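Quick one:
INPUT:
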């Protein structure tokens, strides 16, 4: 098959491109260039310079001649609400003129909910816009929290033995490794079923913050505490805005957490209904997170991030 991959040098896209090339497919890799793209070209990918996120490059030509396409949007934290609609429209404009018959889109849990749900709201718009493509079969991969995001807590655990965030301690949340997203995307791209609109909930298991802290503690051999931070705390908001982020990022993070805490955003159906994925959180903590934690301990990495500040004694 001939497959066009958006974001081919990113966490998901690079793994996906390698899987597809390894299976003998022709891959057109979209990137702004650089060593990561050069490495894919060495493996046989066809390079295409440009970006749907910025609108640069001859994007109308990117999907030409392709049988299938992988779509994803890189978040612009300085323009969250405006960025996704602009990129989604570029996707639609380019795909309508193309030979693509199947597209797999990386979206997120909560994309089925219309309303002020923080980052999830952007994915709702993305799904709805792509559904305007009447002549293309669409697989929407509604991804859970990335397990890789847990890396933000290596420093706080190393220094304080604690992680802190806005989600309730016992709230069960789905998680997924980005390698597993790439694996599933490759499977869906190369095994078309002719289904017109499909939504797949992509998460390996549900883990609460308390369970995550206990899992990390077991792996490193000492207790790890979870501290729940109320999103209504004005002192935390003031510190965040003064030192760590923008009002837009604060609003996005707190709206997202509130949507999860209140059950507005969640996975639907039974766990058994999800695609079977190989990476469990326990395996991820042992194989990926722990080496990063040990490096943080060795390097005495005490950089004052927001995650470090809210975890302080």
């Amino acid at each position: 098959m001939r497959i066009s991959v958006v974001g081919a040098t990113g966490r998901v896209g690079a793994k996906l491109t390698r899987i597809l090339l390894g299976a003998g497919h022709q891959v057109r890799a979209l990137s702004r260039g650089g060593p990561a793209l050069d490495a894919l070209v060495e493996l046989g990918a066809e390079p295409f310079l440009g970006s749907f996120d910025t609108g640069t490059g001859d994007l109308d030509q990117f999907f030409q001649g392709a049988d299938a396409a992988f779509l994803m949007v890189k978040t612009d934290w300085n323009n969250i609400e405006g960025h996704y609609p602009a990129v989604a429209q570029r996707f639609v404009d380019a795909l309508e003129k193309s030979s693509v018959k199947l597209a797999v889109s990386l979206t997120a849990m909560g994309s089925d909910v219309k309303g002020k749900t923080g980052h999830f709201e952007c994915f709702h718009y993305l799904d709805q816009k792509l559904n305007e493509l009447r002549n293309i079969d669409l697989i929407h991969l509604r991804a859970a929290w990335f397990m890789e995001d847990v890396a933000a807590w290596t420093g706080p655990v190393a220094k304080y033995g604690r992680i802190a965030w806005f989600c309730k301690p016992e709230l069960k949340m789905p998680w997924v490794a980005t390698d597993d997203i790439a694996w599933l995307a490759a499977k869906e791209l190369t095994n078309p079923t002719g289904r017109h609109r499909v939504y797949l909930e992509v998460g390996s298991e549900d883990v609460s913050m308390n369970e995550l802290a206990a899992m990390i503690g077991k792996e490193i051999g000492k207790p790890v505490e979870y501290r729940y931070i109320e999103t209504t705390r004005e002192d935390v908001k003031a510190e965040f805005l003064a030192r760590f982020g923008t009002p837009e990022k604060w609003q996005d993070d707190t709206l997202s957490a509130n949507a999860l805490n209140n059950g507005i955003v969640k996975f639907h159906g039974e766990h058994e209904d999800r695609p079977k994925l190989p990476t469990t959180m326990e395996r991820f903590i042992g194989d990926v997170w722990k080496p990063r934690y040990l490096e943080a301990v060795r390097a005495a990495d005490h950089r004052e991030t927001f995650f470090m500040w809210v975890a302080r004694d």
